[in-house]
């Protein structure tokens, strides 16, 4: 399905004619789950790229305003929701545009402060009201749900490494992760906490975007940046600020391993696997530099 500026122009003209004279421009980074377009200077159009993402606009339209009242950082605020028509088969969303720079290490002024800011956001999110909120499941690819749904996929990926990494050790790490369970009340999870969904403002965490995979459940899925982006010291600080127990860290590690394995051909994936393999956990569940 071709989703381009011409399609967006038709949708806006048909459903929101008051905005039909505003310029429409594709975002430089349009995303995978959604195609995104600037609408004027202050709005953003998000269109699901396939059927499996089609439930996201309705969810975000309902829940982002409620979450926004309980979270200090800016998050996308819906302006209007578009409906399926002859031009496009899914609901789609118009939100306020949030300016900011995508996270990179060289743009962060102080990494320790950034870790603290991200942990503070996650603690706020997990404290938000969950009444009638959507439970993690197939609609959000089980983010916040039971990690064991990916057991077959992960086990096959480990077997397919062909000796590049120690499959026995990875299997052990994975089995520890999937035998651990979240036994507290469900909390809100973002579902895709990654550098592409975090925006910086003058070198500090300024906003969190893309709540398409959000739901309520186990927060471990939101902690994968501990291995994808942080070093050992930052990892320790991050988990300490989140007051994580060992089981939650084990599940978070499992989520990071799963993601690395299913995107194995990237340099980041191999980095994550190496980070997971080299770490050692002491009795307090914190990390130490591996012996040389």
What is the strand tally? 12
What does the largest sheet look like? 5 strands, antiparallel
Quaternary structure: single chain
CATH-level-2 architecture of the largest domain: Alpha-Beta Complex
CATH class of the largest domain: Alpha Beta
Q: Provide the number of structural domains.
A: 2
Low-confidence runs of at least 5 consecutive residues:
none
Contiguous helical run count: 9
Based on helices, strands and strand pairing, what is the structural class? alpha+beta
> Rg to the nearest angstrom?
20 Å
Q: Roughly what is the average pLDDT, rounded to an integer? A: 94
Strand content: 15-25%
CATH homologous superfamily (4th level) name of the largest domain: Aminoglycoside phosphotransferase (APH), C-terminal lobe
């Amino acid at each position: 399905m071709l989703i381009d500026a011409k399609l967006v122009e038709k949708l806006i003209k048909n459903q929101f004619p008051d905005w039909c004279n505003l310029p429409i421009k594709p975002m430089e980074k349009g995303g995978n789950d959604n195609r995104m377009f600037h609408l004027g200077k202050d709005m953003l159009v998000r269109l699901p790229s396939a059927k499996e993402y089609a439930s996201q606009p309705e969810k975000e339209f309902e829940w982002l305003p409620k979450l926004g009242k309980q979270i200090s950082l800016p998050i996308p605020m819906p302006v209007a929701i578009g409906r399926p028509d002859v031009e496009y088969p899914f609901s789609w969303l118009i939100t306020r545009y949030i300016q900011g720079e995508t996270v990179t290490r060289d743009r962060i002024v102080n990494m320790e402060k950034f870790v603290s800011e991200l942990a503070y956001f996650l603690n706020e999110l997990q404290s938000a009201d969950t009444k009638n909120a959507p439970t993690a499941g197939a609609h959000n690819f089980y983010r916040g749900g039971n990690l064991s749904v990916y057991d077959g996929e992960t086990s096959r990926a480990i077997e397919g490494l062909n000796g590049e990494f120690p499959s026995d050790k990875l299997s052990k790490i994975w089995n520890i992760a999937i035998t651990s369970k979240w036994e507290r009340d469900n909390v809100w999870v973002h579902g895709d906490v990654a550098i592409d969904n975090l925006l910086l403002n003058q070198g500090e965490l300024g906003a969190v975007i893309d709540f398409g995979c959000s739901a309520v459940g186990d927060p471990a899925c939101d902690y994968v940046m501990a291995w994808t982006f942080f070093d050992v010291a930052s990892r320790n600080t991050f988990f300490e600020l989140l007051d994580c127990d060992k089981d939650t860290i084990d599940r978070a590690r499992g989520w990071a391993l799963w993601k690395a394995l299913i995107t194995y051909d990237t340099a980041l994936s191999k980095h994550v696997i190496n980070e997971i393999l080299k770490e050692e956990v002491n009795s307090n569940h914190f990390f130490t530099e591996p012996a040389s």
